[in-house]
Specification:
The complex is a heterodimer of chains A (436) and B (260). Chain A has 436 residues and is mostly helical. Chain A is built from 20 helices and no strands. Chain A has helices spanning 2-29, 41-53, 62-91, 97-101, 104-132, 146-178, 196-199, 204-228, 236-246, 262-269, 297-305, 311-315, 317-320, 327-348, 358-362, 365-368, 376-380, 387-401, 407-419, 432-435. The longest helix of chain A has 33 residues, at 146-178. The radius of gyration of chain A is 28 Å and the shape is elongated. A 4-stranded parallel beta sheet of chain B has the order 2-1-3-4. Chain B has a 4-stranded parallel beta sheet with strand order 6-5-7-8, sandwiched between helices. In chain B, helix 3 (30-45) crosses helix 11 (249-256), helix 7 (119-128) crosses helix 8 (160-168) and helix 9 crosses helix 10. The chains are: A mainly alpha (436), B alpha/beta (260). At the A-B interface, helix 10, helix 13, helix 17, helix 18 and helix 19 of A face helix 2, helix 3, helix 4, helix 5 and helix 6 of B.
Chain lengths: 436, 260
């Protein structure tokens, strides 16, 4: 009874803490500017189904894709067993689903066991690629300190969690064959039964202790891990879904213009304003972004969704030729800056400048000026994150607000203004190619 | 048929089938001008009437926008839209993927709605509708490797039209390791064309050209005036300038048809 109470309190507390942090995250996203979803919602659902649920873009890299599928499906399958653990923990039952599912229970335990083994192997493959094979994309400049530690914590935790379940099942299986109550015959254990020789010599009481310890380690591990996720790149397991839903449906070539600027420009050009278009509203028109507060909430959601896989950086032409730009770093910096300011923001409910900013303190002009806007990073991202959007908004701040464009670009702007061409060549010569 | 401006067409009381959006590169750059001439010869051959804006055309605003000057972009765009709408332009063909992308995707927000084609798409359309006759014989020019422009490929999802034109013109196509969705940029996009590259260990166009040359092509085909400049410079750097010609797909086709 006592253990049921303890279990109940820990479960409710852990879930409540997780919900609190997710709600906080939702409020943090509201620090960003509005973002309008365009296109029919059915198309957004389809996009989410394709990209997040069916992981279409993961397939670009088959080995990572296969291992990722295993962990993804394994997570879903093993969760059925976790459901049983929760029921058992709250009611004091043992393998509560067995009588309910009847013969289907064997199917459940067998699939869980198979996936436990597969997830174990997949996590080892991921650890191998990261730490022994040392894939270059996991070892760029921004991947020092916390980010690689975070990744390894996640993988070792997954190995720990599946190991605990396998040990639990192995001990349970032996107790079942010995007929020790309450360990009634239930389920089939093709993988953990292989561990039998390890525990065969143990007494009934030791086995019960092992089984109980593994049970507690597993469920407490899951609840701890759940509350680790809001502070980790592992947030992608939840945020991939909204992020792919809210991602624009348009081709990546399109970069939207700031509609707030249009009336002013039309006025300057002497063009008629459309009916209902507000002239000068008196508000200052935001020009680009210097800090996370000036990015859209979708840009901020992108940043929290990033799992730092580095596919973007590994295909970035600027990065590949030794420039400072790394699209992954753009996303990580955006998230880290947001994390830095969110506490102060939530305390007062509004944003007071702290003398620091995303552009300058996190991202340097050299990085954003190296971008060719080729969209290779956008195409490479398995969850539709768009680093180019942030890069262009930071450039807009440098150019339109701070007047800090590179000199050669200022020359180009002047040519465009004077000649309607990026070069200092007269418009009168535009048709000369025909005569030659 | 010599090229005519829309104002000339209008003064004759008629209108051409398409507006050819020349773009700044083909207006002023010698090499890109040759592409414009090849393309318009193909239009003539197919019996397509075409006009240009001439002195009334100005930059679409692509480099301004991507360099962070949305203000200047909107100024240029709104002026162009005013001109295009005054002529009641319906169909535009561009030989530059940057112009194509901007006209097609970014002008509607500012009130410019047109049917916009990249010349690879339009030429293929002319072939498919039988207006341009191309025999499928293998070209004596041998192996061709096609370099995807970012704003045609990834930017707008058009990978097949330029390849299909090359195939129909008899080219033996060879694909670069990084092609289509994962093609490597030539290094010119995002206004890089108009500035020095940031510090690094290599220029992007060198990296890309080396990759293309490793396939031992007889020719490199491009579909963008900026790629043309960057890849041509890359072949100079590799010491094969002239030996491995860099050609626009329109030039390749026009040559096969004996037009240039």
């Amino acid at each position: 009874m006592l253990s049921q109470v303890i279990f109940g309190v820990v479960l409710v507390g852990a879930v409540a803490l997780f919900v609190y942090h997710i709600r906080l995250l939702n409020r943090t996203l509201k620090i960003g500017r509005p973002y309008a979803l365009e296109g029919p919602s059915s198309a957004h659902w389809m996009q989410m189904l394709r990209v997040a649920v069916f992981q279409q873009r993961m397939m670009d890299r088959p080995i990572a894709s296969a291992a990722h599928w295993v962990i993804y499906v394994g997570f879903l399958v093993i969760n059925i067993e976790v459901l049983e653990i929760v029921i058992d923990g709250l009611t004091g039952s043992h393998r509560a689903l067995a009588p309910l599912l009847g013969s289907a229970y064997n199917l459940m335990t067998v699939s869980a066991e198979v996936f436990l083994a597969l997830v174990f192997v997949a996590a080892v493959i991921f650890l191998w690629r990261r730490n022994i094979q040392k894939l270059p994309r996991f070892h760029t400049a921004e991947m020092r300190g916390w980010p690689p530690l975070d990744a390894n914590i996640i993988l070792w935790t997954e190995i720990g969690l599946v190991s605990a379940l396998l040990i639990m099942n192995a001990a349970d299986f032996i107790l079942q064959t010995r007929g020790v109550p309450p360990y009634v015959q239930a389920g089939a254990f093709p993988v953990s039964s292989l561990l039998r020789p390890l525990f065969e010599g143990f007494s009934d009481n030791t086995l019960i202790a092992v089984e109980r310890a593994a049970w507690w380690v597993h469920i407490l591990g899951i609840l701890a891990f759940l509350n680790y996720i809001p502070f980790s790149k592992h947030l992608h397991i939840f945020l991939s879904f909204p992020n792919t839903y809210y991602a624009p449906l348009e081709v990546p070539g399109k970069i939207p213009s700031n509609p707030a600027l249009t009336p002013t420009i039309k006025e300057a050009l002497g063009l008629p304003l459309e009916n209902g278009t507000a002239q000068h509203s008196g508000e200052t028109i935001p020009l680009g972004a210097k800090d996370v507060t000036e990015l859209s909430w979708k840009n901020l959601l992108d940043a929290y969704t990033c799992t730092e896989c580095g596919r973007c950086t590994s295909v970035c032409p600027a990065h590949l030729t030794g420039k400072k730009l790394s699209p992954r770093k753009i996303m990580m910096d955006t998230r880290d800056r947001l994390e830095e300011i969110k506490r102060a923001y939530h305390k007062t409910g509004h944003w007071e400048p702290d003398g620091r900013s995303l552009l300058g303190d996190y991202i340097t002009p050299e990085e954003i000026w190296a971008c060719t806007t080729c969209n290779a990073c956008v195409r490479a991202c398995p969850v539709l994150i768009n680093p180019v959007s942030i890069i262009v908004q930071l450039r807009e701040h440098l150019v339109m607000e701070a007047s800090q464009a590179p000199e050669s670009l200022n020359v180009m702007f002047t040519n465009l203004e004077n000649n309607g061409s990026p070069w200092a060549l007269p418009a009168a010569d535009r048709a000369k190619w025909i005569e030659a | 048929m010599p090229g005519k401006t829309l104002s000339a067409w209008v003064s004759e009381g008629t209108k051409p089938e398409v507006l050819y959006w020349v773009g700044c590169a083909a207006s002023f750059d010698d090499r890109a001008q040759r592409v414009a001439r090849a393309f318009t010869k193909l239009l003539d051959k197919a019996g397509v009437t075409w006009g240009i804006l001439g002195t009334e055309e100005s930059c679409t605003g692509d480099p301004a926008k991507r360099a962070g000057n949305d203000f200047l972009f909107q100024m240029l765009a709104l002026q162009n839209i005013q001109t295009l709408n005054a002529y009641e332009v319906k169909t535009i063909v561009a030989t530059c993927p940057h112009c194509f992308n901007t006209l097609r995707n970014e002008y509607p927000q500012l009130g410019g709605n047109y049917e916009v084609w990249h010349h690879s798409q339009y030429l293929l359309h002319l072939i498919q509708t039988g207006r341009l006759q191309v025999d499928g014989a293998i070209s004596p020019d041998g192996v061709v490797v096609y370099h995807d422009p970012c704003y045609l490929g990834r930017g707008n999802g058009e990978y097949e039209a330029p390849r299909e034109i090359l195939r129909r013109a008899g080219a033996q196509l060879r694909e670069a390791p990084r092609s289509k969705d994962f093609a490597l940029c030539c290094g010119a996009g995002g206004a890089q064309m108009f500035k020095e590259p940031e510090p690094g260990h290599k220029d992007i166009n060198i990296e890309r050209t080396e990759e293309l040359l490793a396939l031992k092509p007889d020719r490199i085909a491009v579909a963008c005036p900026f790629c043309m400049t960057m890849i041509t410079d890359g072949t100079k750097h590799a010491g094969v300038h002239g030996k491995v010609p860099v050609q626009d797909i329109a030039e390749y086709l026009a040559q096969r048809l004996g037009l240039i």
